[in-house]
Amino acid sequence: MAMEIAILKPPFTRKLNREGYSPMHLALQKKHYHTVRALMTLDPKLIRVHGRGGITPLHFVAGEIGDNEQENTAVHIVVKKGNTEAFKILFGWLKRVCLTVIFNWKDQNGDTVLHIVVSGEQQLEIIKLLIGYTKVHAKNLQHQTTLQIFQENPNCNQDVEDRLRCQEHRARRSTPTLSLSQYFSMELTCFEKYAGYFGTRNENVREMLLIVSTLIVTATYQAALTPPGGYWQDSSSNNPANSIAVTTNSSSIAIGKPHQAGNLILSGANLLCFTILNNLVFTASIGTVWGTAITLYPDTKMVYLSLCLLSIAYFVFVTIEIPKSDMLLVMIYLDFMSAH
Fold first, then answer.
1. Which InterPro entries match (predicted)?
2. Which of 84, 154, 251, 278 is paired with 191 by a 20 to 30 Å CA distance?
């Protein structure tokens, strides 16, 4: 019954009862683990719904019902309790839902998960797992890195110390530490300049740009596939009295020069004007989408790949579609424009 309601009314799975608990909170409290698994399958983000006191289902998984005034994540709680098995479960889940950034979150003392692990008992297995997913050069409120804390531990493991030192060296080399004065004195990066130019600091503006640009890209691509006038349906080696032409709207009788079936009816100056304008609008729209998404890089890698493939497909099609004689005019015009 619970799963039927969740499927039919998904918003109900996030609502809290009078006591401040969501359906997943209650399922965990009652140890209805089959329901918990089913809810996670339906929506993995349900495990992060905040209940009374800021408690999420992750805190129940960690075996702790503390409050979030300590600014502890479920991962902080797990490592403080030394529960290696529970940590492995959370570690695997966070990797699968691409939320490993949580490992870099800090508590009220400025400690990340790795700070806590290296300061207590030697949980070497957890440390080795975290090294590749945590900023080892991050400092807590005592201005200590994980390596410095680990070296103060009398039982520190030499292999782990070497790994931490190597990872910290790489991190410092790739991301140098800057003071606030140094950071604000720097020139704007290309990403920041693009963000200001395209207005992408405002989410509503970004959404509007993406929607409008996507519609224009679709329209121009469709216009290239079905240009004005359509295509010749028949082939003719002389000037026929009647030649059947397929247009975008209907079939009509046209009198024209020799042609081949499948070739464009539009030619000469009209084709030149249409092709250039359509290409310019298509390129401008692709550029707008590209610029709007650039501030979200590298999360938008697949968007860039798709745009590149779409652009290649478009220009290859245009090159094949336009007759060689007309393509020469287009190339001459584009060369002229680029020279000026």
1. Ankyrin_rpt, Ankyrin_rpt-contain_sf, PGG_dom
2. 278
